[in-house]
Amino acid sequence: QVHLVESGGGLVQAGNSLRLSCAPSEWAIGLYAMGWFRQGPGDEKKSVALISWSGGTTYYVDSVKDRFTISKDDASNTVHLQMNSLKPEDTAVYYCAARVANPSGTRIYFDPSDYDSWGQGTQVTVSS
């Protein structure tokens, strides 16, 4: 397990944007598959956007397609989640997660139990 630090959450009005960032404190993220998950009040943690080690494979839950973009910056050891056209239903605590990549580096991992490193979470609140 490694320590992940998230930033960028906050309170915004519907239709606006936020950019979340996740920086691991120890290793180069180029060796890990990463993901963003969110958890609303009374809900379980669910995947939002996932990215492979290579960066060539991504996944988005249907509700955020065409609004959110996940990206990796190996030079700065950071994973970003650009969130545009935010809606009240996007309100949740957002978590960054990481796990060791498969040898080809192309696989993404859908289930929270696939990940062994997590950030502390950052609150995103979208007002109507």
What's the gist of this structure?
This protein is an all-beta fold and 128 residues long.
Any key phrases for this structure?
single chain; mainly beta; seven-stranded mixed beta sheet; four-stranded antiparallel beta sheet; 48% strand
Q: What would you say this structure looks like, in words?
A:
By secondary structure, the chain is mostly beta strands. Helix content is 0%, strand content 48%. Strands 2, 4, 5, 6, 9, 10 and 11 form a seven-stranded mixed beta sheet that branches.
Rg is 14 Å
Question: What is the N-to-C succession of helices and strands?
Answer: EEEEEEEEEEE
Number of helices: 0
Q: SS-based structural class?
A: mainly beta
Shape: globular
The helix fraction, in percent, is under 10%
Low-confidence segments: none
**Major beta sheet summary:** 7 strands, mixed
How many strands appear in the DSSP assignment?
Answer: 11
Q: What fraction of the residues are assigned to beta strands by DSSP?
A: over 45%
Mean pLDDT rating: 92
Distance between the termini: 38 Å
List the helices and strands and how they pair.
Elements: E1 4-7, E2 10-13, E3 18-24, E4 32-39, E5 46-51, E6 58-60, E7 68-73, E8 78-83, E9 92-100, E10 117-118, E11 122-127
